[in-house]
Amino acid sequence: MSETILKVQGVSKRFGGLQALSDVGIEIRKGQVYGLIGPNGAGKTTFFNVITGLYIPDAGSFELGGQPYKPSAVHLVAKAGIARTFQNIRLFAEMTALENVMVGRHVRTHSGLIGAVLRTGGFKREEIEITERARQLLEYVGIGKYADYKARTLSYGDQRRLEIARALATDPKLIALDEPAAGMNATEKVVLRELIDRIRRDGRTILLIEHDVKLVMGLCDRVTVLDYGKQIAEGTPADVQKNEKVIEAYLGTGGH
Fold first, then answer.
1. Superfamily for domain range 1-81+173-256
2. InterPro entries per the record (predicted)?
3. Closest CA to 156 of 179, 194, 185, 196
4. CA-to-CA distance for 186 and 52, rounded, in angstroms?
5. Under DSSP, is residue 105 helix (H, G, I), strand (E, B) or coil?
6. Across-strand partners of 36?
7. Which residues pair with 225 in a beta bridge?
8. What is the rounded average pLDDT of the residues 202-214?
9. Strand, coil or helix: what is 6?
10. pTM of the entire structure?
11. Which segments of 127-184 are extended strands (E)?
């Protein structure tokens, strides 16, 4: 049996009088692309934000790579080994593509503030290594030629790929993609799918929230479906598509 990367159980979250999540859990194994889908308002983004430390859950247990972790802050979750992208692109617009990826890589540095201030030999060596790794990742996602371009000058699809490169720079156990195909045209989606496939083939584990059901069903090994904050189905894409609750709540509505 393959190694469990992320195991989340019993997650609940309330906002005032709204019960956004009720006893939700998932288990993702190493090398899987795991999909999270559901109609608008189903709780997908809330669950995603809980896992990645943006929201504090009211209840739930969390394990990453077999070790408990507390999703109490985004930077702590990143250090634990979960890197995420955002539905609304969050790049440093005035920094170059290379610099954006280097920012992600600094999560794994060791020199610290004193080393940076004093420009120690260890700090300089680490900066060279960070720069080289950032260039490799830009090549990996297919935008190496834009390394010295400001992030704001890149096309929409290339900005999405830059976000993925920055997430990969943290050497995550799990990379969590929040609607990466949102706003993309058909050609850009093909490129995105090829990139996600490549990341999977290279042994990475991916959690994918996506409105494009066709993309999810074509990419994912397993899928969880939420509706009104509750888990209504979990299984292979083929099993989920045949589930009557899913057909009623999501797939049968013409595509939320």
1. P-loop containing nucleotide triphosphate hydrolases (3.40.50.300)
2. AAA+_ATPase, ABC_AA/LPS_Transport, ABC_transporter-like_ATP-bd, ABC_transporter-like_CS, BCA_ABC_TP_C, P-loop_NTPase
3. 185
4. 29
5. helix
6. 209, 224
7. 37, 233
8. 91
9. strand
10. 0.86
11. 174-178
d(CA 234, CA 243): 9
pLDDT value for 250 = 57
Tell me which residue of 48, 39, 38 sits closest to 13, measured CA to CA. 48
Domain ranges (residues) in the chain: 1-81+173-256, 94-171
The residue among 244, 239, 245, 184 whose CA lies nearest residue 210 is 184
Contacts of residue 113, defined as CB under 8 A and 6 or more positions apart, other chains included, come to: none
Nearest to 5 by CA among 166, 178, 164, 206: 206
What the block records as the tokens of 152 is: 């704001």
Retrieve residue 90's tokens.
């969050």
Of 29, 33, 35, 32, which is closest to residue 4 (Cα–Cα)?
29
For the cut 90, the answer to whether the pLDDT of residue 183 exceeds it is no
Gap between the Cα atoms of 159 and 155, Å rounded:
6
Residue 31 backbone phi and psi in degrees, to 5: 85, 0
Q: Give the tokens for residue 11.
A: 């997650």
DSSP states of 96-120 as a string?
BHHHHHHHHHGGG--SHHHHHHHT-
Summarised one tens digit per residue, pLDDT across range 109-121 is 554 444 444 455 6
Two tokens, residue 177: 């993609």
- The token duo for 10 is 């019993």
- 74/247 Cα distance (integer angstroms): 34
